[in-house]
Amino acid sequence: MVKAAVFASGTGSNFDVIMNTEDLACEITLLVCDNPEAQVIQKANKYGVAVFVFNPKDYPSKKAYEQQIVKKLQEAGISWIFLAGYMRIAGPVLLGAFENKIVNIHPSLLPAFPGKDAIGQAFKAGVKITGVTVHFIDEGIDTGPIIAQVPVTVLTGDTETELKERIQKTEHQLYPKVINQLIQAK
Ligand code: GAR
After folding, report:
1. Is the pTM of this model over 0.90?
2. How far apart, in whole angstroms, are the C-alpha atoms of residue 81 and residue 160?
3. Closest residue CA from atom 9 of ligand 1
4. pLDDT of residue 186
5. What is the pLDDT of residues 100-109, one digit of tens each?
6. ipTM of the complex
7. Residue 85: CB within 6 Å of ligand 1?
Protein backbone atom coordinates (compact mmCIF):
# COMPACT_ATOMS: atom_id res chain seq x y z
CA MET A 1 0.00 0.00 0.00
CA VAL A 2 1.07 3.58 -0.75
CA LYS A 3 2.79 5.18 2.23
CA ALA A 4 2.04 8.75 3.29
CA ALA A 5 3.17 11.19 5.96
CA VAL A 6 1.10 13.75 7.82
CA PHE A 7 2.76 17.04 8.82
CA ALA A 8 1.15 18.83 11.78
CA SER A 9 2.04 21.43 14.40
CA GLY A 10 -0.87 21.38 16.86
CA THR A 11 -3.93 19.53 18.10
CA GLY A 12 -4.21 16.98 15.33
CA SER A 13 -7.97 16.60 14.92
CA ASN A 14 -7.49 16.14 11.16
CA PHE A 15 -4.72 13.61 11.83
CA ASP A 16 -7.10 11.75 14.15
CA VAL A 17 -9.82 11.60 11.51
CA ILE A 18 -7.40 10.44 8.81
CA MET A 19 -6.13 7.69 11.12
CA ASN A 20 -9.71 6.58 11.83
CA THR A 21 -10.73 6.40 8.16
CA GLU A 22 -11.32 2.72 7.51
CA ASP A 23 -11.03 2.77 3.73
CA LEU A 24 -8.04 5.13 3.53
CA ALA A 25 -6.18 4.43 0.26
CA CYS A 26 -2.77 4.90 1.88
CA GLU A 27 -1.00 3.96 5.06
CA ILE A 28 0.09 6.84 7.29
CA THR A 29 3.44 5.67 8.55
CA LEU A 30 5.07 8.93 9.66
CA LEU A 31 4.10 12.12 11.48
CA VAL A 32 6.40 15.11 10.95
CA CYS A 33 5.99 17.78 13.62
CA ASP A 34 7.85 21.04 14.22
CA ASN A 35 6.61 21.50 17.79
CA PRO A 36 7.80 19.12 20.54
CA GLU A 37 4.83 20.22 22.72
CA ALA A 38 2.13 19.49 20.12
CA GLN A 39 -0.78 17.27 21.16
CA VAL A 40 -0.66 15.52 17.80
CA ILE A 41 2.48 13.68 18.94
CA GLN A 42 0.52 11.85 21.66
CA LYS A 43 -2.07 10.91 19.05
CA ALA A 44 0.65 9.44 16.79
CA ASN A 45 2.04 7.46 19.73
CA LYS A 46 -1.44 6.08 20.42
CA TYR A 47 -1.71 4.84 16.83
CA GLY A 48 1.87 3.54 16.77
CA VAL A 49 2.82 5.95 13.99
CA ALA A 50 6.51 6.91 13.86
CA VAL A 51 7.17 10.56 14.67
CA PHE A 52 9.91 12.85 13.42
CA VAL A 53 9.81 15.89 15.65
CA PHE A 54 12.22 18.72 15.05
CA ASN A 55 12.80 22.21 16.37
CA PRO A 56 13.66 24.55 13.49
CA LYS A 57 15.82 26.57 15.91
CA ASP A 58 18.19 23.59 16.17
CA TYR A 59 19.10 23.94 12.48
CA PRO A 60 21.13 26.68 10.78
CA SER A 61 18.57 27.14 8.00
CA LYS A 62 15.28 25.99 6.47
CA LYS A 63 17.36 24.19 3.84
CA ALA A 64 19.12 22.20 6.60
CA TYR A 65 15.97 21.04 8.40
CA GLU A 66 14.17 20.29 5.16
CA GLN A 67 17.11 18.13 4.03
CA GLN A 68 16.69 16.17 7.27
CA ILE A 69 12.93 15.86 6.73
CA VAL A 70 13.41 14.64 3.15
CA LYS A 71 15.92 12.04 4.39
CA LYS A 72 13.39 10.73 6.93
CA LEU A 73 10.62 10.66 4.32
CA GLN A 74 12.77 8.81 1.81
CA GLU A 75 13.97 6.29 4.42
CA ALA A 76 10.32 5.62 5.29
CA GLY A 77 9.35 5.13 1.62
CA ILE A 78 6.82 7.98 1.72
CA SER A 79 5.19 9.01 -1.56
CA TRP A 80 2.52 11.49 -0.42
CA ILE A 81 2.54 14.28 2.20
CA PHE A 82 -0.66 15.63 3.76
CA LEU A 83 -0.34 18.84 5.75
CA ALA A 84 -2.88 19.05 8.56
CA GLY A 85 -2.33 22.19 10.58
CA TYR A 86 1.38 22.37 9.72
CA MET A 87 2.11 26.05 10.30
CA ARG A 88 5.30 26.37 8.30
CA ILE A 89 6.01 27.37 4.70
CA ALA A 90 7.68 24.71 2.57
CA GLY A 91 10.93 25.61 0.83
CA PRO A 92 12.54 24.39 -2.40
CA VAL A 93 14.19 21.33 -0.82
CA LEU A 94 10.92 19.77 0.31
CA LEU A 95 8.92 20.96 -2.71
CA GLY A 96 11.58 19.69 -5.12
CA ALA A 97 11.69 16.22 -3.57
CA PHE A 98 7.90 15.74 -3.53
CA GLU A 99 6.67 17.60 -6.59
CA ASN A 100 2.84 17.57 -6.86
CA LYS A 101 2.70 15.24 -3.87
CA ILE A 102 2.24 17.77 -1.03
CA VAL A 103 -1.34 18.67 -0.16
CA ASN A 104 -2.68 21.11 2.44
CA ILE A 105 -6.04 21.76 4.07
CA HIS A 106 -6.96 25.33 4.98
CA PRO A 107 -10.02 26.65 6.85
CA SER A 108 -11.23 29.25 4.34
CA LEU A 109 -12.25 29.51 0.70
CA LEU A 110 -8.83 30.41 -0.68
CA PRO A 111 -7.59 32.77 -1.97
CA ALA A 112 -9.59 34.53 0.78
CA PHE A 113 -8.09 34.58 4.29
CA PRO A 114 -4.73 32.83 3.86
CA GLY A 115 -2.26 32.44 6.73
CA LYS A 116 -2.90 32.11 10.42
CA ASP A 117 -6.32 32.29 12.09
CA ALA A 118 -8.28 32.08 8.85
CA ILE A 119 -11.51 31.40 10.75
CA GLY A 120 -11.02 34.47 12.97
CA GLN A 121 -10.14 36.58 9.91
CA ALA A 122 -13.36 35.53 8.15
CA PHE A 123 -15.47 36.03 11.28
CA LYS A 124 -14.09 39.54 11.85
CA ALA A 125 -14.56 40.45 8.18
CA GLY A 126 -18.26 39.63 8.51
CA VAL A 127 -18.47 37.38 5.46
CA LYS A 128 -21.60 35.26 5.14
CA ILE A 129 -19.87 32.35 3.45
CA THR A 130 -16.46 30.92 4.20
CA GLY A 131 -15.35 27.30 3.98
CA VAL A 132 -12.56 24.80 3.51
CA THR A 133 -9.96 24.39 0.76
CA VAL A 134 -7.70 21.46 -0.09
CA HIS A 135 -4.84 22.42 -2.38
CA PHE A 136 -1.39 21.46 -3.60
CA ILE A 137 1.22 23.65 -1.97
CA ASP A 138 3.87 25.87 -3.45
CA GLU A 139 6.29 28.33 -1.85
CA GLY A 140 3.54 30.79 -0.92
CA ILE A 141 1.33 31.07 2.15
CA ASP A 142 -1.70 28.85 1.43
CA THR A 143 -1.27 29.28 -2.32
CA GLY A 144 -0.98 26.57 -4.98
CA PRO A 145 -3.49 24.80 -7.24
CA ILE A 146 -6.87 24.21 -5.62
CA ILE A 147 -8.12 20.60 -5.57
CA ALA A 148 -11.43 20.89 -3.68
CA GLN A 149 -13.49 23.48 -1.83
CA VAL A 150 -16.59 23.24 0.35
CA PRO A 151 -18.48 26.36 1.47
CA VAL A 152 -19.61 26.85 5.07
CA THR A 153 -22.33 29.40 5.81
CA VAL A 154 -21.82 31.87 8.65
CA LEU A 155 -25.18 31.76 10.45
CA THR A 156 -26.81 34.77 12.06
CA GLY A 157 -25.74 34.84 15.69
CA ASP A 158 -22.83 32.45 15.16
CA THR A 159 -19.99 32.78 17.63
CA GLU A 160 -16.47 32.31 16.33
CA THR A 161 -16.32 29.03 18.28
CA GLU A 162 -19.50 27.72 16.64
CA LEU A 163 -18.19 28.68 13.21
CA LYS A 164 -14.88 26.96 13.96
CA GLU A 165 -16.69 23.77 14.98
CA ARG A 166 -18.63 23.66 11.70
CA ILE A 167 -15.56 24.41 9.62
CA GLN A 168 -13.56 21.70 11.35
CA LYS A 169 -16.39 19.20 10.92
CA THR A 170 -16.36 20.05 7.20
CA GLU A 171 -12.58 19.55 7.10
CA HIS A 172 -12.95 16.15 8.74
CA GLN A 173 -15.48 15.05 6.12
CA LEU A 174 -13.55 16.45 3.16
CA TYR A 175 -9.88 15.62 3.75
CA PRO A 176 -10.04 11.79 3.82
CA LYS A 177 -12.24 11.81 0.69
CA VAL A 178 -9.80 14.02 -1.23
CA ILE A 179 -6.82 11.97 -0.04
CA ASN A 180 -8.45 8.83 -1.44
CA GLN A 181 -9.39 10.51 -4.72
CA LEU A 182 -5.82 11.76 -5.24
CA ILE A 183 -4.20 8.44 -4.52
CA GLN A 184 -6.68 6.41 -6.53
CA ALA A 185 -6.32 8.76 -9.52
CA LYS A 186 -2.57 8.07 -9.76
C1 GAR B 1 -7.05 23.10 10.66
O2 GAR B 1 -8.23 23.87 10.75
C3 GAR B 1 -6.32 23.42 9.37
O4 GAR B 1 -7.17 23.70 8.31
C5 GAR B 1 -5.51 24.62 9.78
O6 GAR B 1 -5.05 24.30 11.06
C7 GAR B 1 -6.05 23.54 11.73
C8 GAR B 1 -5.39 22.36 12.42
O9 GAR B 1 -6.32 21.69 13.22
N10 GAR B 1 -4.45 24.89 8.86
C11 GAR B 1 -4.10 26.11 8.49
O12 GAR B 1 -4.58 27.12 8.95
C13 GAR B 1 -3.00 26.15 7.43
N14 GAR B 1 -2.78 27.46 6.99
P15 GAR B 1 -6.00 20.23 13.76
O16 GAR B 1 -4.60 20.27 14.37
O17 GAR B 1 -7.04 19.99 14.80
O18 GAR B 1 -6.08 19.27 12.59
Report:
1. yes
2. 30
3. 85
4. 63
5. 999 999 999 9
6. 0.98
7. yes
